[in-house]
Design brief:
By secondary structure, the chain is an all-alpha fold. The chain has helices spanning 11-14, 35-58.
Length: 65
């Protein structure tokens, strides 16, 4: 709800959580503060998650299984 109310804050960015610093991603937020804004934040978060997963998969070294 915080990010749907105009506050661009995410613990993963602020506290440099786990390996999130190794990936290119943006905090998703909206300024309106209504339920549509919350929905749009969730949809955008899913898009960013896919972006992070793709980057992580690209970083897996190749080789024999």
């Amino acid at each position: 709800m915080l990010r749907a109310s105009g506050i661009e804050w995410d613990l993963r960015k602020v506290d440099h959580y786990e390996c999130y610093d190794e990936f290119d991603w943006e905090v998703q937020w909206q300024k309106e503060g209504d339920s549509l804004a919350r929905y749009l934040v969730r949809i955008s978060e899913m898009t960013e998650s896919i972006k992070i997963i793709q980057q992580a998969l690209e970083g897996i070294p190749g080789g024999a299984l």
